[in-house]
Design goal:
With 436 residues, this protein is of the alpha+beta class. It has a single domain, classed as B-lactam Antibiotic, Isopenicillin N Synthase, Chain (Jelly Rolls). 30% of the residues lie in helices and 18% in strands. The protein is built from 14 helices and 18 strands. The chain has helices at 16-20, 24-42, 70-73, 80-88, 116-137, 143-148, 193-199, 201-226, 230-236, 257-261, 349-354, 395-398, 416-419, 425-432; strands spanning 44-45, 53-54, 61-63, 109-114, 150-154, 157-162, 171-175, 177-179, 189-191, 268-274, 288-291, 297-301, 308-313, 324-329, 341-347, 364-366, 376-378, 381-383. A hairpin with a 2-residue loop joins strand 5 and strand 6 (157-162). The protein is globular. The structure holds 2-oxoglutaric acid and fe (ii) ion. Residues 270, 272, 288, 293, 300, 303, 308, 364, 366, 378, 380 line the site of 2-oxoglutaric acid.
């Protein structure tokens, strides 16, 4: 069925189901990702299902800065072209590539290096996550957060603390949501409010500052990968900075929860703790199953304890086959220096869509520790498109589309982009993750 793009436009409001239902190719897109995730589980890995390759020679490292500071002055920053290449120039189609393992550009994962104040602010976010779980373990302090549970803020919007996600006390997750601040000088409000009460004001504000840095990094990455203008990126990407104009700042008050929920950002921070690992030697015991994220980008300050692995198609047979590949563990580059912070930047489903299949959404999983009796804490930031009715995708204006490019994306699907023209980005979220 071919649906003319012009009939798909929505101008806010409108019936979500009727508009999203008219996008058969988008549904196929979602289904094809599900198939790739399944295939990664069955994959003919070079190292077998349980082993992995490390990233030292596989995943590109991008040097970025947010703040203009002393420590950034002498650094050579990755250019937008470097960033674009790192995510899109896939080893599988590059004839010059002589290696035997897949390149990151086939995985949708890059590593971002930050230094100086940028690194400090992201460390503040890591400390905030640590403080949170230290608080959870503190008998006298944890009652409020344990009682919170996961609660519904409004349709499709949840927050809260699930202390027993997989039913076996192996994983705990806190889903936070952000409310944009009244003015630019202020930090967003983080829900559930109990998180802030648990960690204290200073840790909370450090955490929010780290998120701000990561939002800025993700805006740079998105812009460069998709060739967007700053304006188009700001319109698309929810960095929790924009308030709903219909609610005046006087009405923005944590006591008035209804006004707040209208403004809850579609991006969010997740605080995860995996308890000490059960010895594992099969995919069945993954701490977090192979999956993709429903995001533009997921930014994860590289946790102290490794475990995250990304799926990279293999070049072993120098043929494109989703079934052939390996798990790659993003680790610090061998030549890392003190004061540097590494952030793992995974492309989400929306990045694959908007790049017209050039950037694969990153399939990833978390394997438990075999020997160490340690807990792994991770704090991924899920950077998503705005929920706003204004965030309508205008392909011609927003994206510098593929016309000049020689290479077709590995996962290019003819007609899909046209089908999504003038789409309210929230319609996409409804199709791809109805329960988010
Ligand atoms: O634990 C991690 O580092 C990643 C977690 C993850 O993939 C997710 O929360 O979607
Ligand atoms: Fe994930």
């Amino acid at each position: 069925i071919v649906v003319p793009a012009s009939s798909l436009g929505t101008t806010g409001g409108g019936n979500r189901l009727s508009t999203s239902g008219a996008r058969p190719l988008l549904r196929e897109f979602g289904d094809s990702i599900a198939v790739r995730v399944r295939d990664s589980k069955l994959g003919r890995n070079r190292f077998g299902l349980e082993k992995h390759f490390s990233s030292a020679s596989t995943l590109p490292v991008l040097d970025l800065k947010v703040q203009d500071c002393q420590s950034n002055a002498q650094r050579r920053m990755s250019t937008p072209a470097d960033i674009h290449t790192a995510y899109t120039a896939c080893g599988l189609t590059s004839l010059n590539y002589k290696g035997t393992h897949g390149l990151s550009s086939g995985s949708g994962c890059c590593i971002v290096r930050l230094v100086g104040e940028d690194a400090e602010s992201v460390s503040g976010l890591v400390d905030f996550a640590d403080d949170f779980f230290a608080g959870v373990d503190n008998e006298s302090a944890n009652r409020a957060i344990n009682n919170v549970g996961v609660f519904r803020i409004s349709n499709n919007v949840h927050a809260g603390f699930d202390k027993n996600v997989n039913g076996d006390d192996k994983m705990q997750v806190c889903y936070t949501k952000l409310i944009p601040p009244k003015s630019e000088a202020e930090l967003p409000i983080l829900l559930p409010l109990e998180v802030g009460e648990l960690v204290g004001e200073s840790s909370l504000s450090d955490g929010c500052n780290g998120m701000k840095t990561l939002f800025s990094v993700s805006a740079q990455l998105t812009r460069a990968v998709l060739g967007m203008t700053k304006e188009a990126t700001d319109k698309l990407l929810d960095d929790s900075s924009l308030r709903n104009e219909e609610v005046s700042s006087d009405e923005m008050d944590s006591a008035n929860i209804d006004n707040l929920t209208d403004n809850v950002s579609n991006s969010y921070q997740r605080l995860i703790r995996y308890s000490s690992g059960v010895a594992s030697n099969s995919d069945d015991t993954a701490a977090f199953w192979p999956h993709v994220d429903s995001t533009l980008l997921t930014l994860i300050p590289m946790p102290e304890i490794p475990g995250l692995e990304v799926w990279a198609p293999s070049l072993t047979n120098s043929k494109i086959s989703d079934l052939s590949g390996e798990w790659v563990r993003p680790i610090k580059p061998t030549k890392s220096a003190d004061g540097e912070i590494y952030v793992i930047a995974l492309a989400g489903e929306f990045m694959e869509l908007l790049s017209d299949g050039k950037v694969p959404t990153c399939i990833h999983r978390v394997m438990p520790q075999n020997t160490l009796k340690q807990q792994r804490i991770s704090a991924p930031l899920f950077v998503r498109p705005r929920r706003s009715k204004h965030a309508v995708l205008n392909l011609a204006a927003d994206l510098s589309l593929t016309s000049g490019d020689q290479e077709e994306g590995m996962y290019h699907q003819k007609g899909l982009m046209e089908e999504c023209d003038q789409m309210r980005v929230w319609d996409y979220m409804e199709i791809m993750s109805p329960d988010n």
